[in-house]
Structure formats: structure tokens, C-alpha cells
What does this fold into?
Amino acid sequence: MIRPRMRWCAADWVEAQGALIVRAHGLHKHFGALHVLKGVDLEVAERELVFIIGPSGSGKSTLLRCLNRLETPESGSVAIDGIDLLDRRTDLNHARQRIGMVFQSFNLYPHMTALANVTLALRLVAGKSRAEADAAGRAALARVGLADRAEHRPGQLSGGQQQRVAIARAIALEPRVMLFDEPTSALDPELVGSVLAVMRSLRESGMTMVVVSHEMGFARAAADRVVFMDHGVIVEQGRPAEIFETPSHPRTQAFISQIRQH
Amino acid sequence: MSNWDRFVETFFNAKVLARYWPDIVAGLWVTIGLAALVVVSGLVAGLGLALLRSLGVRVLNWAIIFVVDVFRALPPLVIIVLIYFGLPSLDIVPSGFVSTWASLALVLMAFAEEIFWAGLTAVPKGQWEAARSTGLGFGQTLMRVVLPQALRITIPPLTNRTIAITKGTALGSVVAVSEILGQASSAVSNSYNPSPLTLGAAAYLVLFLPVVVFGRWVEARFR
Ligand SMILES: Nc1ncnc2c1ncn2[C@@H]1O[C@H](COP(=O)(O)OP(=O)(O)OP(=O)(O)O)[C@@H](O)[C@H]1O
Ligand SMILES: [Mg+2]
It folds into this structure.
């Protein structure tokens, strides 16, 4: 396979660890006249945690959303755990069970309890009985520290708790990879820690993760690789220390120094 | 005879009331049946159209919007008369009851479609994305996630609109439907006394006042 070489790439990781879970190549995406992704390649190895950073509008969310086909790129290829997401014969709904996604705005179903939020797809997509789904749902809520909130509605939970229910909803399906799009950006500062703690424990359990976020402290502590995007391309990527301390590209340097100020 | 006696004689004539109240009660049942048919078929058809519209097929949506706008623009009486007097020239001869039912159901369908549609589009896009990202299909997301939230938003305006249109059953009297107003009118012409109209009005109050009060409760409960 021909793979575009970068300063540091998932292939290096694969040699030591195992299979590639995410293989996205040559992604192009337009919104009208706006060229949002201009030939993006991203590979993520099993158990790897990749951080994506970059200025607003650089295409981070769009890239992430291409990885579960919430957006469809016009060209390129996306394979998750060996499943070609752009193949018309692929059962997308089946494939999406393996790809968990967590959104900035939580997007919990407000008319359902936390447990029902978690069990809906377990019953409708994974085909579990109500009893099986409830057991799996409660286990997932326990993993995010919310076993005692199963019967609460989203409106009765804090932002941090809601986001943890959203994480439980995704991990209950036992995905092969988790995508996080700014999971802590909508939270009050004092609630960020609880969500990051859950993400850290997920990472320790060996979950493959792609995280769009500017939480530099978390990136330093947990990420294997940081990817810097600007204007629809990956400008630079490397180990967190490399990207944060010694970025080589001027645009990366400018961005890092800018987020440092905050 | 004093003015008061004349008033009572005109609107509360005991003999006329005693003679004609069974007719008004019969009319009440016809009104109830007609109203129930209009509400059920109009709401089901309106919801069906709104769900069809959510499929996002452009040509279909133009057709839906056209039909909906036509039936929102036409006065219900005009539709009733068109069906009752117009269709027979196509060798379709609907009764007055069927003409009234069909007309009001079409009007309610049109208004209900717009209200359901507004409710469906008011549900944030993130709800669709969250559900689809867990593998739910379009139909599952629509029925389990989006529609329940949309219905909550639609209940108050839908209740009010449904009450307003259902009162139009009185228009059936124009095409010989023996609902409340129809019965009252023929009783008036037979007795040469307006008292049956008083009974008719009372029958409408008995029927619709609880519904209006219910609508008020719904509005407060689901706001
Ligand atoms: N559905 C859409 N329709 C039209 N334009 C869009 C759409 N989604 C994104 N865009 C545009 O594409 C560009 C990239 O958006 P994207 O959300 O991927 O950026 P981002 O890097 O995630 O930014 P942010 O940090 O603000 O979340 C932006 O200019 C955005 O306005
Ligand atoms: Mg974004």
C-alpha cells in the first residue's frame, strides 16, 4: 500500500501495536464553493489517541464527521476497522455501531431518561432485548460514574453529567473507535475535569480515540499524537511535546502561541 | 305581553323545546360523529404529509406545499359546496355528511401538516446526528427521537386549530346534514319559533366548552 509519508505517522505505531482502525485518504470536501478539506490523510492505529487541533473553520469537525459519514467527502477513501464507509454496499447503520461519536452540545434525547438514551440503539440497532440492553446500559453509565443517575432526564443533569451520559451512550455499543468533537467546549470550567477523567479512563482501557479539542493539558498527558490542521490540510503532526514545544511550521507556531495566551 | 315574556316566548318556548329536544340530541350525535371523523382523519393525514415531507424529495415536497396552501386558502364552505354540488357532474354523488367530512378533514390536514412540519424542523439537527451516529436509521430516528419531541411542541397550536376547524361541522347544515344546526333550523321552520336555536347553541356549548377548557389546560401543560 502506498501511504503518504509524514513526519510521524500511524504506521510507526502500527509496527509496535497492531491494526489500523482509521484509514482515511485523500479526503476532499466542499460546502458550496468553500473547499473545506483539501486532500486530508489520517490514519489511527488501534489503542492510539490522536488529538486534532487547529483554528476555527480549519475543517476539524468536518474531518471527524467524515469518519462516520455524517459528512460524505466528494473524493478519497474512509475505512474504519476495515469497513469501507464510502462503498454503497456498506450497511452504514451497522458500521456506525463501531464508531462512537460525542458532540460538543451533548445531543442527548431530552424526552428520555439517561438509561433510555443509552439503551435506545442497543435495542434498535444492536438487537438486544430490553433486559440485556438495560444491563449493558447500566454498566455503561457506571463506567462514566453515573450509575445513580440512570432514571434522570437530561434536563435534571449538569452539563458534565450530560456529556458523560453521551459518552456512555456511545461506548455501550462497544465501538472500535471513539470520535470526540470538542467534548468539553460547552462546559463550565469546573465541570471539564469530570469529562476528561472519563476520557482518560477510556483511554486506559485501550479505546482508540480521535479527539478534536484544545485541552492542551489533557493532550500532553494522554495523546499519542497531535495533528495540526489549517485551511483544510494537515499542516503538521507529531508527539504532543514536539507539536507544543518545538512546532516546525510557522502556522503551527502561531497557533500554539495563540492558544497558550488563554 | 311584556318584553320579558316576548323574549322568553321567542327563545325559551317550553312547548317548542319539549317537542324538539329529541331532534337536537339526535343532531348532537351526528355532530359528534362528524367531528370525530374530521379530527382523526385530518390529523392522521396531516401527520402523514409532514412525515412524507421530511423525506426531502423535492418534487413531492412541492406537491405537498401546493396542496396544503390551497386548502389553507379556500374557505371551508366553498370546499363543501364544490364537493357536494360539483362532484355529481363527475357521477360521484357524495352525501352532505361525506362532503362536510371530506372538506373539513382536508382543511384540518393542511393546517395540521404545517404545524407538524414546523415541529419537526424545530427539533435541533444535533438530535438527528446523535441518533444516526449510533446506527439508528432514518425512520427509527424520525419515529423514536424526533417525532416525540416535535409532538410536544405542536400540541398547543394543534389543539387550537383542531377546535376551530371542528366547529365548522355546523357548515354541514348548508348541505342538508342533520347535525345540531341542521336539526335546529328545520325545527325552527316547522315550529315558526326560534327556541330550537337556543337548544342548538346549548348543545354546541355542551360539546365544545369542555374541549376548549381542555385546550386551555393543554396549552398551559405543554408550553
Ligand atoms: N453544513 C455546512 N454547510 C456549509 N458550510 C459548512 C458546513 N459545515 C461546516 N461548514 C464550513 O466549513 C468550514 C469548516 O468547518 P468545520 O466545522 O469543519 O471547522 P472546525 O475546524 O471544526 O471549526 P471550529 O473550531 O469552529 O469548530 C467552516 O468555514 C464552516 O463554516
Ligand atoms: Mg468544529
Remarks:
- Residues A 60-61, 181 surround magnesium ion (ligand 2) (CB under 6 Å).
